[in-house]
Amino acid sequence: MSNGGTPRSLPSSGQKSIQEICHPLSAEESARSRSPDVLNPGEKDLSLPNGTPVDTSSPASSSSLLNRLQLDDDLDAETRDLFVTVDDPKKHVSTMETYITYRVCTKTTRTEFDLPEYSVRRRYQDFDWLRIKLEDSQPTHLIPPLPEKFVMKGVVDRFSEEFVETRRKALDKFLKRVADHPVLSFNEHFNAFLSAKDLNKRQGLALLTKMGESVKYVTGGYKLRGRPVEFAAMGEYLDMFTQKLGTIDRIAQRIIKEQTEFLMELREYGPVYSSWSSFEEDLHEPLEGVSGCVSNCSSALEELTEDMSEDFLPVLREYVLYIESMKNVLKKRDQVQAEYETKLEAVVFREDKKTPMPTDVEKCQDRVECFNADLKADWDRWQNNKRQDFRQLLTGMADKNIQYYEKCLAAWESLIPLLQDKQDAKGETN
Amino acid sequence: MADSGSEDIAVIGNTDLTPSESQNNLKNTMVEKGTSLLKKMEISVAEAEKRTGKNAVNMQETYTVYLIETRPVDAASEGTSPVPDSLWRRYSEFELLRNYLLVTYPFVVVPPLPEKRAEFVWHKLSADNMDPDFVERRRVGLENFLLRVASHPVLARDNIFYLFLTEEKAWKETVFETGFQAKADSRLKALNATFRVKNPDKRFAEMKHYGDELQAVVSQLLRVRARAADRLYGVYKVHGNYGRVFSEWSAIEKEMGDGLQSAGHHMDAYAASIDDILEEEEHYADQLKEYLFYADALRAVCRKHELTQYELETAVQDLSSKKQQREELATGTVRTFSLKGMTSKLFGQETPEQREAKLKMLETQIEEGEEMVKDRNVECEEFVKGAWTDIERFKEQKDHDLREALISYAIMQISMCKKGIQVWNNAKECFSKM
């Protein structure tokens, strides 16, 4: 059903990378026009007038594209018309089960919504439902990851404040990513998730994608003939990136472990000064002061360690899942291309008949190109998100460390006068 | 030459020190110039050298010698700075000197030597006696020891100490000629024996208790400090791994590449900075260690006081029992059950001549005993006076030194925090440019 309008506008942008980047990032309108056409075939014509101008204007202006790319942080904020937050986790205890719900608040000016504001309560499995729906109905797009469902039992308390808060942050991030996506944010399931009082999870079950069918073409290790270099490069990039993230995750964990052990020593170290001070006269205050200072530093260190394990590690892990999602999309793309290549081959074998290319094969080709375009757009968006996220994450890590040292610095600096005072007074009397 | 040298010292030790000055020295006891011997000469342990030789049982051994340099202060202040007198000493010779001082001046809290073997070490610090860092720290410690002795109001005047600084060869014989070894042996025996003082001096008992507490708390502090240093080292060094992974990651990034790469360098710098920090902290640990050993010296003085007191009490008891015997003999009554009473009952009375002779003997013994008690009393009083003066001096020195040590420790922490802030600010700048 998406074969009608979209492929017609896309082939022209098919092989020119500049245009492809331009296409998804350019404007809300183009995105807005495309998503309804996935959902409502009746409106597909709308995509043409909106899509075409972008395509024709772009080849000339690679510099304007650069400007756009640089500006797009701000642009995003200015044109954003859908705001979603996840907050206020609540624990529900019933005879059957115990679970947490989160409040999902939506503010929007989009006409697809009946009201400008919604507030609903959703639990993890509702989020899970949404993600599956998105994956099914938007197979060509990268669906952001959810936090992992299963946590090692016994190791993590699922109802502890820290766990719930970490999960809330991840769910919030998930919805925000969907809301900021020019296509996914118009998905009807997403709309229902945000606005419906009761989620009818059966709704839309019939909407099974055709993409699912192509799975059969990749079984048995079919090797793609013409996988474009850029997609191969994406795969390689993702593998490397996963590896690096894994290393960073391990380093961060070891730092947290070392810090925790350092903290334990400090907790013992400070009080020793205190017990020393108990049997000194002149040195009583200085020693007591050092003890207090070490205790302040311990608190600062504890905060740093907590911040790192609650804010830093989860984001890293979420990105590992994000990469997995991206890899899945790449795999699906390969499947679609495999289907096309198989069909094409079959046609080529009966070349002699001189019949025109069957529409079936053409449709397949269209679909591959449509997929390629969507994927490239999502890739660029993902790269951009990743850059912002890691800039924020690493700057945050630096900030936390700076704050830690500043607290310690303040503690030690305030100690100096206490250490010197009495001595000066003594020096005068001597 | 050696003779005239020893003549000199006596002069150096005693002249120019008016009572008021020495009083001043008692108060101002820190290792500074301007006190006693240090007024006359500069003392330093300039370097250490590894040597190999044969030991007493003819075994090949490697040891370290330290170069002691002395030069007259006057010459230095005149700017002529002549070649300093110098000689080599082994650690064992320092030990011999200290043992001599301990025996000769039992009432003095004798400055301790730096540790014989590295204690309270964290994993990166070598416990090997030949390790250059250890040898260097010991060199500093030995110099500190010499300066402490040289600035001590009593010890600085010691002849043997002066020879230690100036006479490389003849010194050892001179030490043994003092016969301190014999005295040391008998003292050691007496100190090791268990005895209980009847009327302990409260001040010394308290001081001994303080020494115990100080030793316990400082050793605990050093232990925890070493463990904390290990952990801190780990925290910093693991950050260094970021350096590598950022650099590798930067290779697959476009816009983020440069920022990551340079942030990685800052992480490397962060990891490297801990080496200097902990090296500095080791100096603080050495300062604490000196007082850990000082606590032992303090306890030794208290213990020697107990011994002196005990000897006095024994003499008094001896005297009173002699007096009691005399009384019994004179009056013929036996107040308490005794062997003597038994024998007299069994074998009949002694002849008056016998009694007379016994009484006479007791009489002389009592006289001797009274003399002894008098001597012991004087000895004890003198000891108390000397020891208390030195303990007061020590307390002041300790308060001053430890306060200084804490200040420099705090300053060290401050500079570590500042370094940390700087590195993370640099890294932050790189990250924010990504």
Automatic annotation (TrEMBL), chain B:
GO terms for cellular component: early endosome membrane; plasma membrane; SNARE complex. InterPro entries: AH/BAR_dom_sf (IPR027267), PX_dom (IPR001683), PX_dom_sf (IPR036871), PX_SNX4 (IPR034902), SNX4 (IPR034783), SNX4_BAR (IPR037430). Pfam families: PX. One of its GO terms (molecular function) is phosphatidylinositol-3-phosphate binding. GO terms for biological process: positive regulation of autophagosome assembly; protein transport. Residues 1-23 are annotated as: Disordered. It comes from the Eukaryota. SUPFAM superfamilies: PX domain (SSF64268). Keywords: Protein transport, Transport. SMART domains: PX (SM00312). The keyword Lyase does not apply. Residues 44-171 form the PX domain. Belongs to the sorting nexin family. This is Snx4 protein. The gene is snx4.
